[in-house]
């Protein structure tokens, strides 16, 4: 991933051209068709994974800030360098006033990634202020029907952002490299006798917050050769009962690392709880950790699949 970001930064510096008018571009954003008469010049992205998509496309110079990172997560060194010229306008979800006050003309967010259904910040509430919205594909299940999460969700977002900002060649190049890299890596991996059963542990002790069939980890696990034990759960990110986790007996537990509770603390909670003692993953101490930015849709999904594939084939 470091190579990818560095490479893209170089591409960005070398390939950035002065703003040029383009013909109207339309993209599908969840259940809306959105038309752009010109590339946005004052964009804001919400959350760390969406912001990283903007950065790998070399769009930092089209942005006036970002939101929704420091309230829950931390920027790693690589991301911090990428956004060092940009202000964080809100530590958590932005208000409508924050976006308007920044003179934004574009907001890249998702449902439960900066916007909530029925909340004050939505495509409809921002439109009167000249702020167009592109919604994260993974999140579209909150406003309509959608196929289960797949790697194509992330590629679709890169492709649509490329069209919106008139950098389609850059987006297509990225996607082709990601796909070729992943295909070559997986082809070199030993075959699995069976797909390991995997539970995604995001957070929570009374009830676990996990990934259903519409959340990105479902796609990452499948791409790596495993099976999400909640792949029949008709949700994206949501809570389930611990009873269902115990009953489905995961062989591997994927921890999503972010927030105040560390990955080590999450692992210790499961290892030390007698109720989980008979779970295969606990008995065999098989945990794998993904950072939040790896587990949610974004460029680091490629490395996430590699991490999972290696863990699934380990003892």
Write the CATH homologous superfamily of the largest domain: Nitrogenase molybdenum iron protein domain
Shape: globular
Distance between the termini: 26 Å
Count of individual helical segments: 13
Radius of gyration, CA atoms, in whole angstroms: 20 Å
Domains, number: 2
Q: What is the helix fraction of residues, given as a range?
A: 25-40%
Strand content: 15-25%
* Second-tier CATH architecture of the largest domain: 3-Layer(aba) Sandwich
Low-confidence stretches: 1-19
Q: What fold name stands as the CATH topology of the largest domain? A: Rossmann fold
Domain Fe/B12 periplasmic-binding: 42-315
InterPro entries: ABC_Transporter_SBP, ABC_transptr_periplasmic_BD
Keywords: Signal
Pfam family, one: Peripla_BP_2
Q: How are the SSEs ordered, and which strands pair?
A:
Layout: H1 2-15, E1 25-29, E2 32-36, E3 43-46, H2 48-56, E4 63-67, H3 77-82, E5 88-90, H4 96-101, E6 106-111, E7 114-115, H5 123-126, E8 132-135, H6 151-164, H7 168-187, E9 197-201, E10 209-211, H8 216-224, E11 227-228, E12 237-239, H9 242-248, E13 252-257, H10 263-271, H11 280-283, E14 287-291, H12 292-295, H13 301-312
Parallel strand pairs: 3-4, 3-6, 4-5, 6-7, 6-8, 9-11, 9-13, 13-14
Antiparallel strand pairs: 1-2, 10-12
Helix pairs in contact: 6-7, 7-13, 8-13
